[in-house]
Every structure is written in structure tokens, then in C-alpha cells.
């Protein structure tokens, strides 16, 4: 039972944190006014994509915590979550696309580092981060394009 309580805590931390930051930094009129690249997805795609990704992030974090709560992979997991939670306030809140691009590139690097670190010890946790890496690589490209176009 204790094991599943810790999973619930990870889900609450990651999903709850993501939802709070998302609502606090809604794109709004500023984002709507930006020139978008042709590959910009419709706004409705972001919420379901991030919800699924946050579940995967939480499960990978929980599995890593269960194996080695003070290990390097767990520290990298914490770093990626902090960078993840920093991006929206930087991009949407402060409207600083350049610094947000730096944040998202560091986020992508930490995601890849987590995959590498987790791969030999818990391949499933590594795989859980692969869609996350793909989405963040896409989001970094979108961030760079928005910076370039605006």
C-alpha cells in the first residue's frame, strides 16, 4: 500500500504542479498575436499532450524513487521537473522567448541525460521519457521558430 501511496504523491506533484503552472500562465492574447510557423499545432493539442506526458514523467520518477531515492537518476529527474516548471513562466508569464529557449534546451538535455542514466537500471523508466523527449524537442523547435518570426 505504501508503494502505491508514493505513486499517488508523484502523480499529484507532477500533474498538480503542471496544472497550476499551466493555469497561472495561460497563453492569452500575447501568444495569439504572435506570428506562428506552419507546423504550430492547434491550441487544444497542448493540454492532452502535457497531461499524458506528466503521467509518464510521474511514473518514471516514482520508479526511480523506489530504486534509488538519492541516486543520480533521481537528481536528474528533479532537475528536469524544475526546468519543465520554469519554462511556462519564462515564455508565457515573462514573455521572454530567448531565455525560454535556453530553459527548454537545458530541459531537453536533462531529459536525454535521464534516459541515459535510467536505461541500464530501469529501461521502462527510460522508455517512459522517450515521448517526452520527442515532444520537448518539437517544443524547442517551436520556441526557436516563434523567437525567429517575432
Automatic annotation (TrEMBL):
The keyword Cell membrane does not apply. It is a multi-pass membrane protein. InterPro entries: TspO/MBR-related_sf, TspO_MBR. It is found in: Membrane. GO terms for biological process: tetrapyrrole metabolic process. Keywords: Kinase, Membrane, Transferase, Transmembrane, Transmembrane helix. GO terms for molecular function: kinase activity. It comes from the Bacteria. GO terms for cellular component: membrane. It holds the Pfam family TspO_MBR. The keyword Membrane applies. Its main location: membrane. Belongs to the TspO/BZRP family. This is Sensor histidine kinase. It comes from Rhizobium loti.
Amino acid at each position: 500500500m505504501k508503494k502505491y501511496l508514493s505513486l499517488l504523491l508523484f502523480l499529484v506533484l507532477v500533474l498538480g504542479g503542471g496544472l497550476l503552472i499551466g493555469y497561472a500562465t495561460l497563453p492569452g492574447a500575447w501568444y495569439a498575436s504572435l506570428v506562428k510557423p506552419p507546423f504550430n499545432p492547434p491550441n487544444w493539442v497542448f493540454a492532452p499532450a502535457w497531461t499524458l506526458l506528466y503521467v509518464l514523467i510521474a511514473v518514471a520518477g516514482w520508479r526511480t524513487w523506489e530504486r534509488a531515492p538519492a541516486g543520480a537518476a533521481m537528481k536528474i529527474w528533479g532537475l528536469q521537473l524544475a526546468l519543465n516548471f520554469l519554462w511556462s513562466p519564462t515564455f508565457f508569464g515573462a514573455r521572454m522567448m530567448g531565455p525560454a529557449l535556453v530553459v527548454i534546451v537545458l530541459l531537453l538535455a536533462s531529459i536525454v541525460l535521464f534516459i541515459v542514466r535510467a536505461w541500464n537500471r530501469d529501461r521502462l523508466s527510460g522508455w517512459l521519457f522517450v515521448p517526452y523527449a520527442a515532444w520537448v524537442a518539437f517544443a524547442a523547435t517551436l520556441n526557436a521558430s516563434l523567437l525567429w518570426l517575432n
